[in-house]
Amino acid sequence: MNAAMKDESSAHISAGGGAQPSALGGGRPTDASQLDTTHGVILYLEGINVSFDGFKAINNLNLTIDRGELRCVIGPNGAGKTTMMDVITGKTRPDNGTAFFGQTIDLTKLSEPQIAHAGIGRKFQKPTVFEQLSVYENLELAMKTDKGVWASLRARLTGEQRDHINENLELIQLQDQAHRPSGLLSHGQKQWLEIGMLLMQKPQLLLLDEPAAGMTDAETERSGELFLSLAGQYTLVVVEHDMDFIKQISEDRKVTCLHEGSVLSEGPLDQVQNDERVIEVYLGR
């Protein structure tokens, strides 16, 4: 593995209604064992504002996500969806407002690697896997470890680590592709592999940006089945434009529509789809 790939690997792995939480955090290292969701809420955003050169990308955003929830977030381009995820993962600092992971972890005081270590994983629209490596090696590389990347691939796996890899291979249905170079996978399979890589780090919250984009109908349906199987064990926030896909995974679940940086409508999918404001700015007639 060359130095450039090693740097890319390290960057990829590291970035990956209750009472108001107390203001703890302070930027010090934290991990998922410190996550307190005794009130049922895993993500708490209140009064978040973000401006870029006078443009208000996020405008007094208030949002709560319950632990184990699968929440779809929709809205027109420029609604603030990506900026919201940037705030949650520490890529963008809000001008003001409150952002808590559980009751005690103040996301505004942590770096991107600290937030990832605390248990928040993010998947971007374009899959990022190490195409020279096999599917199995990608999952192995993604495990939380203090060793260097090259040493990680040469280290002897424990039985528990092998079991964890095999469980995720089965979950993402790539058992028969385990020793295939990842560059030979289909677009959908690469998306599932990257989700598997995030799961190797045992996150509590997964942020998924347009995961169905570019997939075949069969791959999209399989992705929906995967997300439904993850809900409950993990918390998922899915930003997506494909309304058929949203319908597959959001029936009987809450959906949030953003517009101009704040929540325009929120509730069951049928209610949001029939909201005149959502029809006007996003869905059309």
Give the gist of this structure.
The chain has 285 residues and is α/β, with parallel strands linked by helices. The chain has helices spanning 3-14, 81-89, 112-118, 135-142, 149-154, 159-171, 187-200, 217-230, 243-250, 269-273, 276-283, and strands at residues 41-52, 55-66, 70-74, 96-101, 105-106, 120-123, 205-209, 235-239, 254-259, 262-268. The strands form two sheets. It has a six-stranded mixed sheet, sandwiched between helices.
Q: Give the low-confidence spans.
A: 1-29
CATH class of the domain at 17-111 and 251-285: Alpha Beta
On the 0 to 100 scale, the average pLDDT is 86
Instruction: Give the end-to-end Cα distance, rounded to a whole number of Å.
Output: 53 Å
Radius of gyration: 19 Å
Q: What does the largest sheet look like?
A: 6 strands, mixed
Strand residues, percent: 15-25%
